[in-house]
Specification:
alpha/beta, single chain, 317 residues, 19% strand, 2 domains, Diaminopimelate Epimerase, Chain A, domain 1, six-stranded parallel beta sheet, inorganic pyrophosphatase (n-terminal core), binds manganese (II) ion
Protein backbone atom coordinates (compact mmCIF):
# COMPACT_ATOMS: atom_id res chain seq x y z
CA UNK A 1 0.00 0.00 0.00
CA UNK A 2 1.09 3.56 -0.73
CA UNK A 3 1.29 4.48 2.96
CA UNK A 4 3.81 1.65 3.59
CA UNK A 5 5.96 3.05 0.79
CA UNK A 6 5.66 6.59 2.15
CA UNK A 7 6.78 5.41 5.58
CA UNK A 8 9.72 3.56 4.03
CA UNK A 9 10.75 6.68 2.09
CA UNK A 10 10.40 8.86 5.21
CA UNK A 11 12.73 6.48 7.08
CA UNK A 12 15.25 6.66 4.22
CA UNK A 13 15.12 10.47 3.92
CA UNK A 14 16.97 13.10 5.92
CA UNK A 15 15.80 16.39 4.44
CA UNK A 16 12.18 17.41 3.86
CA UNK A 17 10.43 20.30 2.20
CA UNK A 18 6.72 20.71 2.89
CA UNK A 19 4.19 23.08 1.37
CA UNK A 20 0.53 23.40 0.33
CA UNK A 21 -1.55 25.57 -1.95
CA UNK A 22 -0.74 29.26 -2.22
CA UNK A 23 -2.64 31.65 0.10
CA UNK A 24 -2.84 28.83 2.64
CA UNK A 25 -5.89 28.37 4.88
CA UNK A 26 -6.10 26.59 8.23
CA UNK A 27 -6.15 23.13 6.67
CA UNK A 28 -3.12 23.85 4.49
CA UNK A 29 -1.09 25.24 7.39
CA UNK A 30 -2.41 22.74 9.93
CA UNK A 31 -1.56 19.79 7.65
CA UNK A 32 1.94 21.11 6.92
CA UNK A 33 2.79 21.82 10.57
CA UNK A 34 1.33 18.48 11.67
CA UNK A 35 3.56 16.67 9.17
CA UNK A 36 6.58 18.78 10.09
CA UNK A 37 5.97 18.09 13.78
CA UNK A 38 5.70 14.34 13.15
CA UNK A 39 9.02 14.38 11.28
CA UNK A 40 10.66 16.43 14.03
CA UNK A 41 9.39 14.03 16.67
CA UNK A 42 10.87 11.16 14.59
CA UNK A 43 14.25 12.86 15.00
CA UNK A 44 14.51 14.33 11.50
CA UNK A 45 16.65 17.47 11.58
CA UNK A 46 16.20 19.18 8.22
CA UNK A 47 12.59 20.22 7.75
CA UNK A 48 11.46 23.37 5.90
CA UNK A 49 7.83 24.41 5.53
CA UNK A 50 7.59 26.94 2.71
CA UNK A 51 4.97 29.68 2.41
CA UNK A 52 5.35 33.13 0.91
CA UNK A 53 2.76 34.45 3.35
CA UNK A 54 0.09 33.12 5.67
CA UNK A 55 -2.55 34.54 8.05
CA UNK A 56 -1.08 35.70 11.35
CA UNK A 57 -3.74 33.84 13.37
CA UNK A 58 -1.77 30.61 12.79
CA UNK A 59 1.37 32.03 14.42
CA UNK A 60 0.67 30.25 17.68
CA UNK A 61 0.60 26.74 16.19
CA UNK A 62 3.32 24.29 17.31
CA UNK A 63 6.57 24.50 15.32
CA UNK A 64 5.39 27.45 13.23
CA UNK A 65 9.02 28.64 13.35
CA UNK A 66 9.68 25.93 10.71
CA UNK A 67 7.70 28.08 8.23
CA UNK A 68 10.06 30.00 5.96
CA UNK A 69 9.65 32.06 2.82
CA UNK A 70 12.84 30.68 1.28
CA UNK A 71 14.34 27.22 1.17
CA UNK A 72 17.54 26.61 3.14
CA UNK A 73 18.77 23.80 0.85
CA UNK A 74 19.13 23.51 -2.93
CA UNK A 75 17.76 20.00 -2.96
CA UNK A 76 15.72 17.88 -0.55
CA UNK A 77 15.35 14.13 -0.19
CA UNK A 78 11.57 14.34 0.09
CA UNK A 79 9.04 16.97 -1.03
CA UNK A 80 5.57 16.77 0.53
CA UNK A 81 2.65 18.75 -0.90
CA UNK A 82 -0.53 18.83 1.19
CA UNK A 83 -4.10 20.02 0.63
CA UNK A 84 -3.29 20.83 -2.99
CA UNK A 85 -4.72 19.12 -6.10
CA UNK A 86 -2.11 20.28 -8.64
CA UNK A 87 1.42 21.63 -8.55
CA UNK A 88 0.19 24.76 -10.37
CA UNK A 89 -1.41 25.91 -7.12
CA UNK A 90 1.92 25.84 -5.26
CA UNK A 91 3.88 29.13 -5.39
CA UNK A 92 5.94 29.03 -8.58
CA UNK A 93 9.32 29.67 -6.95
CA UNK A 94 8.91 26.47 -4.91
CA UNK A 95 8.28 24.17 -7.90
CA UNK A 96 11.98 23.40 -8.37
CA UNK A 97 12.29 21.85 -4.89
CA UNK A 98 9.46 19.55 -5.81
CA UNK A 99 10.89 18.74 -9.25
CA UNK A 100 14.37 18.05 -7.87
CA UNK A 101 13.45 16.05 -4.77
CA UNK A 102 14.39 12.36 -4.73
CA UNK A 103 10.82 11.42 -3.90
CA UNK A 104 7.57 13.41 -3.92
CA UNK A 105 4.43 12.84 -1.85
CA UNK A 106 0.91 14.28 -2.11
CA UNK A 107 -1.90 14.04 0.45
CA UNK A 108 -5.14 15.74 -0.55
CA UNK A 109 -8.93 15.78 -0.45
CA UNK A 110 -9.82 17.78 -3.59
CA UNK A 111 -12.06 15.97 -6.09
CA UNK A 112 -10.50 17.14 -9.36
CA UNK A 113 -6.97 16.01 -8.75
CA UNK A 114 -3.85 15.86 -10.90
CA UNK A 115 -2.26 13.21 -8.60
CA UNK A 116 1.07 14.77 -9.50
CA UNK A 117 3.47 13.16 -6.99
CA UNK A 118 5.36 9.84 -6.96
CA UNK A 119 3.29 8.68 -3.99
CA UNK A 120 -0.29 9.93 -3.75
CA UNK A 121 -2.96 9.62 -1.05
CA UNK A 122 -6.23 11.28 -2.12
CA UNK A 123 -9.63 10.93 -0.50
CA UNK A 124 -12.26 13.39 -1.78
CA UNK A 125 -14.71 12.21 0.90
CA UNK A 126 -12.49 13.54 3.68
CA UNK A 127 -13.61 16.94 5.03
CA UNK A 128 -10.00 18.13 5.41
CA UNK A 129 -6.54 17.06 4.36
CA UNK A 130 -5.78 17.08 8.09
CA UNK A 131 -8.35 14.30 8.58
CA UNK A 132 -6.58 12.17 5.94
CA UNK A 133 -3.38 12.65 7.93
CA UNK A 134 -5.12 11.42 11.11
CA UNK A 135 -5.92 8.03 9.56
CA UNK A 136 -2.62 7.93 7.63
CA UNK A 137 -0.50 8.52 10.76
CA UNK A 138 -2.52 5.85 12.56
CA UNK A 139 -1.95 3.38 9.71
CA UNK A 140 1.78 4.15 9.72
CA UNK A 141 1.79 3.64 13.52
CA UNK A 142 3.05 7.17 14.04
CA UNK A 143 2.05 8.47 17.46
CA UNK A 144 -0.12 11.60 17.32
CA UNK A 145 1.23 13.89 20.05
CA UNK A 146 -0.68 16.81 21.58
CA UNK A 147 1.24 19.19 19.26
CA UNK A 148 0.38 17.16 16.16
CA UNK A 149 -3.25 16.90 17.26
CA UNK A 150 -3.37 20.69 17.76
CA UNK A 151 -2.27 21.27 14.15
CA UNK A 152 -4.63 18.62 12.77
CA UNK A 153 -7.70 19.82 14.65
CA UNK A 154 -6.97 23.37 13.42
CA UNK A 155 -7.17 22.08 9.84
CA UNK A 156 -10.32 20.09 10.56
CA UNK A 157 -12.11 22.91 12.39
CA UNK A 158 -11.39 25.45 9.66
CA UNK A 159 -12.19 23.18 6.68
CA UNK A 160 -15.46 21.95 8.22
CA UNK A 161 -16.51 25.49 9.15
CA UNK A 162 -16.52 24.38 12.79
CA UNK A 163 -18.08 20.92 12.21
CA UNK A 164 -20.93 22.50 10.22
CA UNK A 165 -20.37 21.28 6.66
CA UNK A 166 -21.94 18.10 5.26
CA UNK A 167 -18.46 16.66 4.81
CA UNK A 168 -18.14 16.32 8.60
CA UNK A 169 -17.92 12.63 9.53
CA UNK A 170 -18.20 10.48 12.62
CA UNK A 171 -14.41 10.21 12.51
CA UNK A 172 -14.22 14.02 12.65
CA UNK A 173 -16.00 14.06 16.02
CA UNK A 174 -14.16 10.98 17.25
CA UNK A 175 -10.82 12.63 16.57
CA UNK A 176 -12.02 15.91 18.14
CA UNK A 177 -13.04 13.98 21.26
CA UNK A 178 -9.71 12.17 21.34
CA UNK A 179 -7.77 15.44 20.85
CA UNK A 180 -9.73 17.01 23.70
CA UNK A 181 -8.74 14.12 25.95
CA UNK A 182 -5.08 14.73 24.98
CA UNK A 183 -5.42 18.26 26.33
CA UNK A 184 -5.91 20.14 23.05
CA UNK A 185 -7.82 23.36 23.74
CA UNK A 186 -10.54 23.02 21.08
CA UNK A 187 -12.70 25.97 22.24
CA UNK A 188 -9.64 28.24 22.05
CA UNK A 189 -8.71 27.08 18.53
CA UNK A 190 -12.35 27.36 17.45
CA UNK A 191 -12.64 30.89 18.81
CA UNK A 192 -9.31 32.08 17.38
CA UNK A 193 -9.79 30.62 13.89
CA UNK A 194 -13.54 31.04 13.30
CA UNK A 195 -14.99 33.50 15.80
CA UNK A 196 -12.38 36.25 15.82
CA UNK A 197 -11.91 38.91 13.18
CA UNK A 198 -9.71 41.97 12.83
CA UNK A 199 -11.35 45.37 12.56
CA UNK A 200 -10.30 45.55 8.88
CA UNK A 201 -11.93 42.16 8.32
CA UNK A 202 -15.12 43.34 10.01
CA UNK A 203 -15.15 46.48 7.83
CA UNK A 204 -14.62 44.32 4.70
CA UNK A 205 -17.52 42.05 5.68
CA UNK A 206 -19.70 45.07 6.34
CA UNK A 207 -18.95 46.37 2.84
CA UNK A 208 -19.57 42.94 1.30
CA UNK A 209 -22.91 42.62 3.12
CA UNK A 210 -23.93 46.11 2.06
CA UNK A 211 -23.18 45.23 -1.57
CA UNK A 212 -24.83 41.82 -1.61
CA UNK A 213 -26.96 41.41 -4.75
CA UNK A 214 -29.76 38.88 -5.24
CA UNK A 215 -30.59 37.03 -8.46
CA UNK A 216 -33.05 34.36 -9.64
CA UNK A 217 -35.76 34.92 -7.01
CA UNK A 218 -33.16 35.27 -4.27
CA UNK A 219 -31.60 31.85 -4.99
CA UNK A 220 -28.22 33.36 -5.91
CA UNK A 221 -26.22 36.04 -4.09
CA UNK A 222 -23.24 37.94 -5.46
CA UNK A 223 -20.82 40.30 -3.78
CA UNK A 224 -17.33 41.57 -4.59
CA UNK A 225 -14.18 43.28 -3.38
CA UNK A 226 -11.83 45.25 -5.62
CA UNK A 227 -8.13 45.98 -5.26
CA UNK A 228 -9.05 49.53 -4.41
CA UNK A 229 -11.39 48.41 -1.60
CA UNK A 230 -8.56 46.25 -0.32
CA UNK A 231 -6.23 49.24 -0.25
CA UNK A 232 -8.80 51.47 1.45
CA UNK A 233 -9.54 48.85 4.11
CA UNK A 234 -5.87 48.03 4.75
CA UNK A 235 -6.77 44.33 4.80
CA UNK A 236 -4.29 41.42 4.80
CA UNK A 237 -4.18 38.07 3.05
CA UNK A 238 -6.53 35.51 4.57
CA UNK A 239 -8.80 38.18 5.99
CA UNK A 240 -11.33 37.66 3.19
CA UNK A 241 -12.06 34.07 4.16
CA UNK A 242 -15.38 34.80 5.86
CA UNK A 243 -16.94 36.78 3.03
CA UNK A 244 -17.66 33.90 0.63
CA UNK A 245 -20.01 32.27 3.14
CA UNK A 246 -22.12 35.33 3.97
CA UNK A 247 -24.84 34.83 1.32
CA UNK A 248 -25.29 31.14 2.01
CA UNK A 249 -26.49 31.82 5.56
CA UNK A 250 -29.65 33.46 4.15
CA UNK A 251 -32.69 31.15 4.04
CA UNK A 252 -33.51 29.79 0.52
CA UNK A 253 -30.25 31.02 -1.02
CA UNK A 254 -28.82 28.11 -3.06
CA UNK A 255 -25.51 29.56 -4.28
CA UNK A 256 -23.43 32.42 -2.89
CA UNK A 257 -20.69 33.94 -5.05
CA UNK A 258 -17.86 36.23 -3.96
CA UNK A 259 -15.62 37.94 -6.53
CA UNK A 260 -12.31 39.13 -5.14
CA UNK A 261 -10.00 41.13 -7.39
CA UNK A 262 -6.37 40.01 -7.36
CA UNK A 263 -3.32 40.64 -9.55
CA UNK A 264 -4.36 37.96 -12.07
CA UNK A 265 -8.07 38.83 -12.28
CA UNK A 266 -11.13 38.13 -10.15
CA UNK A 267 -10.91 35.13 -7.87
CA UNK A 268 -14.43 33.67 -7.56
CA UNK A 269 -15.47 31.73 -4.46
CA UNK A 270 -18.67 29.70 -4.72
CA UNK A 271 -20.61 28.29 -1.78
CA UNK A 272 -23.61 26.02 -2.28
CA UNK A 273 -26.30 24.37 -0.21
CA UNK A 274 -26.94 21.54 -2.65
CA UNK A 275 -25.86 21.83 -6.31
CA UNK A 276 -22.30 20.94 -7.32
CA UNK A 277 -20.59 24.31 -7.79
CA UNK A 278 -17.24 22.68 -8.64
CA UNK A 279 -18.86 21.83 -12.04
CA UNK A 280 -19.42 25.54 -12.66
CA UNK A 281 -15.88 26.42 -11.59
CA UNK A 282 -14.36 23.73 -13.84
CA UNK A 283 -15.98 25.50 -16.81
CA UNK A 284 -13.94 28.58 -15.89
CA UNK A 285 -10.70 26.63 -15.40
CA UNK A 286 -11.07 26.20 -11.62
CA UNK A 287 -12.32 23.43 -9.37
CA UNK A 288 -12.84 22.49 -5.74
CA UNK A 289 -15.47 20.62 -3.78
CA UNK A 290 -19.18 20.07 -4.42
CA UNK A 291 -20.35 22.75 -1.99
CA UNK A 292 -17.28 25.02 -1.99
CA UNK A 293 -15.32 25.74 -5.14
CA UNK A 294 -13.46 28.51 -6.93
CA UNK A 295 -11.95 29.81 -10.15
CA UNK A 296 -10.21 32.90 -11.50
CA UNK A 297 -11.52 35.01 -14.38
CA UNK A 298 -9.39 37.78 -15.84
CA UNK A 299 -12.04 40.27 -17.01
CA UNK A 300 -13.90 43.40 -15.92
CA UNK A 301 -16.21 43.10 -12.92
CA UNK A 302 -19.38 43.54 -15.02
CA UNK A 303 -18.33 40.72 -17.37
CA UNK A 304 -17.30 38.45 -14.52
CA UNK A 305 -20.61 39.02 -12.76
CA UNK A 306 -22.65 38.29 -15.89
CA UNK A 307 -20.65 35.16 -16.80
CA UNK A 308 -20.88 33.49 -13.39
CA UNK A 309 -24.51 34.41 -12.73
CA UNK A 310 -25.66 33.19 -16.15
CA UNK A 311 -23.82 29.91 -15.68
CA UNK A 312 -25.13 29.43 -12.14
CA UNK A 313 -28.69 30.06 -13.34
CA UNK A 314 -28.27 27.28 -15.92
CA UNK A 315 -27.10 24.86 -13.23
CA UNK A 316 -29.95 25.80 -10.90
CA UNK A 317 -32.61 25.79 -13.59
MN1 LIG B 1 -8.43 21.53 2.69
Amino acid sequence: MTLDEILKEINNSNSFVITAHENPDGDAIGSCLAFATVLKEMGKEKIDVLFKEYPAIYNTLPNCDLIKTEASLDEYDMAIVLDCPELKRVSKEYHKYFEEAKVTVEFDHHLKNAMFADLVVVNPAAPACSEILVSSFKYMKIEISKDVATCLITGIITDTGGFRFNSTTRETFEFAGWALSKGVNIPKIYKETLMTKTKAQFEAEKLAVDRLEFYMDDKITFTYMTKEDEKNLGIQTGEFDGIAGIGITIKDVEVAIFAHERADGFKLSFRSNNIDVSEICVLFGGGGHKLAAGCTINAKLEDVRKAVIDETKKHLG
